[in-house]
Design brief:
CATH architecture: 3-Layer(aba) Sandwich
CATH topology: Rossmann fold
Number of domains: 1
Order of helices and strands: HHHEEHEEHEHEHEHHE
Distance between the termini: 35 Å
């Protein structure tokens, strides 16, 4: 059974070795780098437009996203695992304040204009996701924004059913209407679902066929497909506003 509890996930990401290998282990292929780059670009655009004065990232890991965001004010990174903090703090320098803490029990008042968290909320079952939504909403200013990622059940479920051994950590798989309802129930108004890896079937084939033989061609194909219009993808970047 996939890991999904608070204690299991804390243990899964514990240790200096896990933190040191996090980026290379998860974003080593062009297909995964596309996912990474799309998340960075979406955050950069949103923050540049919104210009929040206080930002909180929950479970930033080794600061894979925070190291790239434009400085518009105070950035707080709340991370439980000490190894991740040791990796992330140096690459952020003075642009971020790092605090060791638990995403379910945020040690802040209502003060943030933006809260975001990637590869975190999705790993928990419904009751724990509700706790995370409530904690995030509690520290958001009125009309503050919450951003996260979510996995599309239509695209991802067949992949996971074919190779369950590759998915040791639980991910909630959503239909878009189900995700929208869950956020509304949490008093978070869904504004945008930005699709990522929009032609995953063909992008994945390119990674398998071209990736080992012609990395430049693989990159060209994967990125060109991503520029084509489509409302669906393997994942979504989800932008919400505090309701």
């Amino acid at each position: 059974m996939s890991l999904a509890s608070e204690a299991e996930l804390q243990e899964a990401y514990r240790g200096d070795m896990v933190a040191a290998r996090y980026m290379d282990a998860r974003f080593d292929s062009e297909l995964h780098r596309l996912l990474y780059d799309r998340q960075v670009a979406a955050l950069q655009r949103f923050i540049t437009r919104l210009r929040p004065q206080k930002i909180l990232e929950i479970a930033p890991g080794p600061a894979r996203l925070t190291r790239h965001i434009p400085p518009t004010g105070l950035v707080v990174c709340l991370e439980y695992n000490e190894g991740m903090i040791s990796e992330g703090r140096p690459v952020c320098g003075e642009r971020a304040l790092w605090i060791r803490g638990n995403g379910f029990q945020l040690p802040f008042g209502q003060c943030f204009d933006l809260v975001y968290s990637f590869r975190f909320v999705r790993h928990f079952h419904r009751k724990d996701r509700e706790r995370l939504y409530a904690a995030s909403r509690q520290v958001l200013n009125p009309n503050g924004y919450f951003v996260m990622d979510a996995v599309n059940a239509r695209v991802s479920k067949p992949l996971r059913e074919a190779h369950p051994e590759e998915y040791l950590i639980y991910d909630k798989l959503y239909r878009s209407d189900e995700l929208r309802r869950e956020l509304i129930d949490a008093r978070l108004e869904p504004l945008e679902f930005l699709p990522v890896q929009k032609y995953f079937r063909w992008q994945y084939r390119s990674q398998l066929v071209l990736g080992p033989r012609a990395s430049w061609a693989n990159r060209l194909v994967i990125r060109a497909l991503e520029r084509l219009p489509r409302m669906d993808g393997l994942e979504w970047i989800v932008i919400c506003r505090r309701a």
